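Hey L., structure's done. Input below.
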Amino acid sequence: MQATVAAWLMATLTPSPLMVALVQTASTAPTLLFGLVAGTLADIVDRRRIIVTTLLILVTAALVLGGATIFGVTGPIGLLVLTFLIGVGFTFYLPTQQASVHGLVSRTELPGAVALNAVAFNVARAAGPALAGAIAAWVGIGVAFVVGALSFTGMFLALRGWKSHEKPLPGVPERLLAGVGSGLRYARHSVAMRSLIIRTLSFAVCASAFWALLPVIARDQLGLGAGGFGLLSAAFGTGAVVSAVAIPRQLRNQPLNTVVTFGVLLWTLATVLIAVTDITGMALVGAFCAGVAWVSVLASLSAGTQSSAPAWVRARAVAMNIVAVQASLAIGSALWGALATAVGTHIALGASAVLVVILSLAHRRVRVTMGEEADVTTGVQLPDLAIHEEPLPDDGPVLIQIEYQIDPENRRTFLRAIHAVEATRRRNGATSWRVFRDLGEKGRIVERYIIASWAEYMRLRARMTQADRKLQERVFQLQQEGVPVRISRFIGVSSFDDEQEPRDVGSDAQSILP
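Output:
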């Protein structure tokens, strides 16, 4: 309701398509600024507490906006500022709420749970705009803002029965900024996560044209009022609900990449239909198909994200997915609004359809898949560390050195296997990684990697998944028979006190995993 009324209010305050499009930018820009911080916070702080706090912010901001509109003191700039504040609240709410889904259901139920979440959201997307348009036309825009604010009451009631089954992660909790870096490092070294983000970006930056220009399409292209604008939004939401209901079956029967590709194709056809028509009925059909495609693409990519990310980084992965969407909407809305101002909404929508096809062809080799159980299941049983004294959490950096003895005929196979391990080391916490061969001893190869601190090293061990362990076991299977793999751990020393021995974390020739 708030998003719909804010966009329509701006359309009544100014004739500029750019200012109307900036409403979308103001609501999504906070995600670009604070999205990764929000995801990190959701990974290290109680999620229920975050949701309660953000809901209080949202209710307060929406009530202020409603009151200001009722008393006639809302201008274009004030509307953008309050919309931005509401966007900040949603920025911290969304990754927390979406990452919580995995802790409420079993893994086999995850696609259905994500789809159900999409159904709930898009029922609101269908009902909210229609209700907002009706209230705005009947008693005024300000009252519609107030009713939207009061609707948050349902969320507070739902939180009373929320019980998550996810167990807290072991070890020292991450600090906020370090956690942001960990999330970015994970995305950089995870092929699955990079593919999901790229596909999300390429779709959302083009799809932003529809959202940015919908009020202008209703007002100028179709000659509709607030009620007609709400009807178009409701048609979109109805299509989204239909698509969300079908997603679990689609993901069971077809690969994720196929579902996403067909969704992008449908979006292109729907956008072209809206761009070329001045008939309201045809525009409603286009909006319905756009809703089907929107959820088919983004809800499927969201399910892929949640299925591919381990628990320790799940909220950050969700946040990066949301940042990709909202950043595309924020930047794309301004660009498409400027283009529509210069050449008209018809051409701007047509250009967005052409661009989505070009990007899809450019990214045809970037395939997205659902994650497997082994990719996210952590808690692998590791041997106890053979150390003389436990370092402090902030001690470091930590150097891990693993010495292998490889027969010459296995060297090429070993190098392929060890380089497959690199990504797992880096995304779990290693800041650098390298393999060396001994010039003085034939067959001796050393793997070395560095972690910023002892606490981060302990987290790295806890983050190992079953898939990570399988990759490491392939390496250890190539070790020369009868020669143990030697693992040494070193802690950085910045100063030396003659009265106290430096902490030595020792070495272990018996451990099979570092």
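The two ends are 53 Å apart (CA to CA). The chain is about 70% helix and 5% strand.

-- N.
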